[in-house]
Amino acid sequence: MKPFTCPTCKMDIVSETMHGWVRDRNFGIETGWKQHIITCPTCSEQANARRMAENIARLMGKSHIPPRMQDWHFGSTPGDVDQTAIAA
Ligand SMILES: [Zn+2]
Q: What pTM was computed for the model?
């Protein structure tokens, strides 16, 4: 994947499942006057999606593809999925 800088949290995203953090805008009596740090909504969503895609790829590993899925095509699956799964 191509490294990018998240427009919301300004974090440099350099790996598939990486995401940044932002300050929660809610601040006051409801947070006990503490400022909370939350996962960045912009890039954490993508990180979760990538992590999920990775898990699916792992679950569907070569020997466990159900018969009804044999006709499915995975042409759009990135070539680096396996390496990423091994490294994780
Ligand atoms: Zn972000």
A: 0.51
